[in-house]
Write a structure and sequence with these properties.
- By secondary structure, the chain is α/β, with parallel strands linked by helices.
- 46% of the residues lie in helices and 16% in strands.
- The protein has 23 helices and 16 strands.
- The strands form four sheets. The chain has a six-stranded mixed β-sheet with strand order 4-5-15-10-11-14, with helices on both faces. A five-stranded parallel β-sheet has the order 9-6-7-8-16, with helices on both faces. Strands 2-1-3 form a three-stranded antiparallel β-sheet.
- Helix 3 crosses helix 12.
- It is globular.
- The structure holds pyridoxal-5'-phosphate.
- The site of pyridoxal-5'-phosphate has 16 residues, from helix 13.
Amino acid sequence: MRYKSTRNSNLRLEASQVIAQGISREGGLFVPESLPNVAEKLVAWSQLGYQELAQEIFSLFLTDFTPAEIESCVKKAYAPEKFGGEAVKLRPFTKNGNRCLLELWHGPTCAFKDMALQILPHFLTISLEKTGKGRKAVILTATSGDTGKAALAGFKDVPGTQVIVFYPQNGVSPMQKRQMATQAGGNVAVCAIDGNFDDAQAAVKRIFTDPAMNAALEKGGMLFSSANSINWGRLLPQIVYYFYAYFRLCKEGTLSLGEPMNVAVPTGNFGNILAAYYAKSMGLPIRKFLCASNANRVLTDFIRTGVYDRRREFFATISPSMDILVSSNLERLLYGLSGQDSGTLAGWMEELAQNGWYDVGEEVRQKVQAQFYGGFCDDAATARTIAETWRTEGYLCDTHTAVALDVYRQYVEETGDGGTPTVIASTASPYKFAADVLGALEPVSCVDEFQNIARLEELTGTQAPAQLAGLKDKPIRFQDMVAKDQAAAYVLAGLNLGGA
Ligand SMILES: *Cc1c(COP(=O)(O)O)cnc(C)c1O
């Protein structure tokens, strides 16, 4: 298996090279040159446990890794003690449609990002051994809240790596901020950006592709890598759980092998839902992808019109990990749907950068609509959904998961497709967003997140994950903030490479 860039089809790189490098030099994203068809393997795979299934899938994509290397990555990342048993959990709902939740947040930082970021450091360490010539990897990360903490937890004290996380000053929940600010480890740094997530992501992308920055790092014996979902090593682990969920539904008798399911995903950077799309492209029977957005509905509008237009107001919502106007991974989908035409893709991305919008045209729009349903809901509907789900199902969901639940409801109402079993990705613990989840159930006046956690526990009889409740006693280590054009200088200073 070799990899190309969405903006340069002439590249043919090994998996270890694309994981070590993160993003292609001309700004494109790495994609597999073709996806393996596994339709013949579904029967055998349906019997595997999570770790075995992950090994099977990874071995198709990481063809320059040895089987022993892949096995060791999987064993370390998905050890039962890290995830409280099986890595993911399926939670059937009994009312309102044929749906179940796929809980992806039982890892160390209580968000689905752990599924990828617990294993990426192991992939990266091996990739660097193969390609890095002994250089140290600087993991530069822009976060809308959850990636940052998951990257910090995954890479903490991993030899040969250094992690720098940028987050939007007013764009993450108090608990997300505290999780990052209290991070332990000798190789980590956390800094706020005076802007929103798109500003943070753009600053990081600029640094990655800046020749002067790359030269400075090389001189210091380092290289940049990425823990964002622009890194192929982030997407690959996410393919596994869609297969796994499907097989679980087969085991329970909800589906017979070969029958289709739908997938609904609360979406920000389009990484999680793209992994589901790749699973389908490999032969997993999926009928429709429900792409759920909050008030930042740029993807909903794109799916409905074929025009991607980021020129709009940015909303800070109660589902902050989806507050994004430039969804990076859409580029990978469009590359595939436009017949792997890197010239066209480079053109659209240039238009987006220069003018703020692009139009994919009739043919690609139809291809998108054939597979994707786009929907959105605002904060009020999110809160209503949390309350209603609690009332009717006795289930407490977080603000992001609630967005997907509401979009699923809209989808069934609009299309009448209530019969297809639907897996709804549940992406975070409700206790990560305790104030807003509690606020959906009763009026909240208190600003202390730990008091809100205690009240939520008392009100619902559920229990906060120890990883979150325990933060109360940890000292704050990081309080830096920089302007968005100062991010590069902050990185150089942090790496002792002087001001540029
Ligand atoms: C990151 C995140 C999302 C969005 O996932 P993408 O892969 O960026 O689309 C949704 N929910 C939560 C809780 C997240 O942390």
